[in-house]
Amino acid sequence: MVTDEQVRRLRKLSNTEKNEEIAASKAGMDPKTARKYLVRNRLPGELAGERHWRTRGDPFHEVWEQVRQQIEESPGLEAKTLFEWLQREQPGRFSDGQIRTLQRRIKLWRATEGPAQEVYFGQKHEPGKLGASDFTHMTELGITIQGQTFGHLVYHFVLTYSNWEAGTICYSESLESLTEGWQNAVWELGAVPAGHRTDSLSSAVNNMSKLEEFNQRYEALMKYYGVKPQHTNPASPNENGDAEQSHHRFKKAVDQALLLQGSRDFGSEAEYAQFLKDLLGQRNAGRRQRLAEELAVMRELPARRMESAKRERVRVDSGSLIHVDRNAYSVNSRLIGEKVEARLYLDHVEVWYGQKKVEDLRRLRGRAKHRVDYRHIIEWLIRKPGAFENYRYKEDLFPTSRFRMAYDALQERAPGQAVKEYLKILKLAAEEGETPVDDALRELQQEEAEAAITVESIGEVLRRLDTIPPVTVVEVAAVNLARFDELCAETAVRQ
Fold it and tell me: Closest Cα to residue 193, out of 46, 60, 318, 300?
């Protein structure tokens, strides 16, 4: 069979050899065949006719209509699933090696007769026109803080023209997280784009009401910065594709940086936050030229940041608790019956009374949670020790595991006096400091004599606490290497 390469060689030789016979011989073909290709001036591949017949029978001819109906009713079905269904419906008729035939037929049908697929329309981005943002879950990357799983999100902001990006660690898709993340991004940038697009976040968009398109507080934030808010359709999150794709690339970069670092554990949240900041800085380094084009046309920042807190007026109940955002927090018992203002930020809650901040509490994540500080209620708990045993928030009154161990030890030694003695220890911690008392409990609990844990014994340890080495100091006894020589000598004698 004559190949295209032979004919190309024949054409070259026909221009240099004396006659066609010599050219045909050197090209490795019969002179008559060579003459035919020289006259037609076409390659063999160009002369081959299209085949319209099958070389073997179609094993799915009789069941194709059933298969087609299944695909039309459920377009997401894969060929492998349908093949396994056919094998179950008609045992022994189809062998595993025939799956490729079905896959090719389904692929051909979808391309020629199947439903039209969704079309993604590439967008032309202009400098300074648009920023996009969304929350991305980071838990899947397996990041830990001091060995403990760190469940969190990152509010991720990106300029659609230059792909400049910024991120803020947060713990929920709340409006406070959105406000804090957005402001962190634009103040780091030093300017604001003309528009800002999110998907249909409940913190920004009124998905359940048509009276107002955007949440009032979110709309106020955008108005304060002179930015036009945009959002995607609820059923089409891909419309915020710039943010979605940036999420994917950002998380992939974080994963690669963690692999390069050799560890996914960090000493603190601050250390992890610095890790992300450094990574984003490296990624933005190659975008300076296009970012400069954006900054040249973006609007200036206002004089100061807008407060990102959500404010609520709440009354302190008889249990010395306030209920904010469906969570309970304790405050000083002096405020019982008074109305205070709670300001909810991304990661903390401030409590204000009489234009003065009286508490700064770490914000709880989730709903129906509680945080009771023993310092707020210990004065009255000492007076009412009987309330301790069945107190609804009893577990919050063990600030560390050593306090819990001390309570259990007291229960074993003197059950009748355990509660009163433990509450005295809590009061001592409120007066002298939780950390020193915790260190004193550590010292008492590791003593071989298992000295009784009382307020008096803790007080004695506190007085000599400066002479006790901290838990981070580890003393390793020197090893006498001569003993190893003796062991080697003994072994040699036995052999």
Answer: 300
Partner residues linked to 145 by β-bridges: 148, 266
User: What burial class does residue 206 get, using C-beta atoms within 10 Å of its C-beta: 0-12 exposed, 13-18 middle, 19+ buried?
Assistant: middle
**pLDDT tens, 149-178?**
999 999 999 999 999 999 999 988 888 899
Q: What pTM was computed for the model?
A: 0.63
User: Strand, helix or coil at 277?
Assistant: helix
How far apart CA 339 and CA 342 sit, in angstroms, is 10
CB 196 within 8 A of CB 219: no
Q: Provide CB contacts within 8 A for 264, sequence distance 6+.
A: 141, 142, 143, 144, 258
- Quick one: which H or E segment has residue 459? helix 455-463
| Torsional sign, CA 386, 390, 391, 393 | positive
Q: What separation in angstroms does the CA of 389 have from each of 48, 71, 99, 148?
A: 93, 63, 67, 30
- Report the distance separating Cα 136 and Cα 419, nearest Å: 46
The full length of the chain comes to: 495
pLDDT of residue 211 exceeding 50: no
* Structure tokens that stand for 168 in this block: 């803020």
Alpha-carbon gap, residue 472 to 337, rounded angstroms: 45
- Residues facing residue 359 across a β-bridge: 351
Q: Could you please report the per-residue DSSP string of 68-96?
A: HHHHHH-TT--HHHHHHHHHHHSTTTS-G
Helix (H, G, I), strand (E, B) or coil at 475: coil
- The C-alpha atoms of residue 70 and residue 82 are separated, in whole angstroms, by 8
